[in-house]
Automatic annotation (TrEMBL):
Keyword Ribonucleoprotein: no
PANTHER family named in the record: GTP CYCLOHYDROLASE 1, GTP CYCLOHYDROLASE I
Stretches for region Disordered: 1-31
InterPro entries xref list: GTP-CH-I_C/QueF, GTP-CH-I_N, GTP_CycHdrlase_I, GTP_CycHdrlase_I_CS, GTP_CycHdrlase_I_dom
Similarity-based family: Belongs to the GTP cyclohydrolase I family.
Keyword line: GTP-binding, Hydrolase, Metal-binding, Nucleotide-binding, One-carbon metabolism, Zinc
Protein name according to UniProt: GTP cyclohydrolase 1
GO molecular function terms noted in the UniProt entry: GTP binding; GTP cyclohydrolase I activity; zinc ion binding
Binding site for Zn(2+): 118, 121, 191
Gene this protein is translated from: folE
A Pfam family annotated for this UniProt entry: GTP_cyclohydroI
Length: 230
């Protein structure tokens, strides 16, 4: 964190990644720190979100003052602050720490749980991400938990699955400079299951391949075999 001073010489509070937890009466609220990365957007506006949710309930014909709904706008605003917390961090920052292990073989994590929100209908899509990479010439690796944190950082925002897959892959390329990257996401979309075509259980699979996984069919096949278990 960086310490700074205001124009009047008084100390300025250090800037950290923030989401609004709704705990202060003025709605600007005490921040929740996320992964030590700098914020990339302003803090979540809890008061504005709560007011908007209240208006939405009124628009659909509900009585927002009845017992079951009286606290709903505040609850939903807090839930949105968590669901969209990835907007307030730079997921790339978690990949800053690397280790020189002189490792040249594939590193792959299967079945990372993934929850995101469809930006078209604001309903969830969820499933699993499989993330793998081959270290570059320096043989540098990152902590295994960091891969899961990158998935989480890009998932917790309004998204489409195709972009989510690409963002994760490109983050690994930028920060690890690997010889290859593969990302596969399998997810069920509630916008397909509970509305529209209404096909619950349908799974959408997307992939992004870079480097050796793109240029060498055998390397890509090896990764897919590890992912599918076949």
């Amino acid at each position: 964190m960086t310490n700074a001073t205001r124009a009047d010489g008084s100390p300025e509070r250090s800037v950290s990644p923030l989401v609004d937890d709704g705990s202060r009466a003025d709605g600007v609220s005490s921040p929740v720190l996320l992964d030590g990365a700098p914020p990339v957007r302003p803090v979540f506006d809890h008061v504005r979100a709560e007011a908007a949710i209240r208006e939405l309930l009124i628009a659909v014909g509900e009585d927002v003052d009845r017992d079951g709904l009286r606290e709903t706008p505040a609850r939903v605003a807090r839930a949105f602050a968590e669901q969209f917390s990835g907007l307030y961090v730079d997921p790339d920052q978690v990949l800053e720490t690397v280790f020189a292990e002189n490792h040249s073989e594939m590193v792959l994590i299967r079945d990372i749980p993934m929850y995101s929100t469809c930006e078209h209908h604001l309903v969830p899509f969820f499933g699993h991400a499989h993330v793998g990479y081959i270290p570059g010439r320096a043989g540098q690796v990152t902590g295994l938990s960091k891969l899961a944190r990158v998935v989480e950082g890009y998932s917790k925002r309004p998204q489409v699955q195709e972009r989510l897959t690409t963002q994760i892959a490109d983050a690994l390329v930028r920060k690890l400079q690997p010889a290859g990257v593969i990302v596969v996401i399998e997810a069920e979309h509630l916008c397909m299951a509970m509305r529209g075509i209404r096909k619950p259980g349908a799974i959408t699979t997307t992939s992004a391949v870079r480097g050796l996984f793109q240029s060498q069919a055998s390397t890509r096949a090896e990764a897919m075999s590890l992912i599918t278990g076949r």
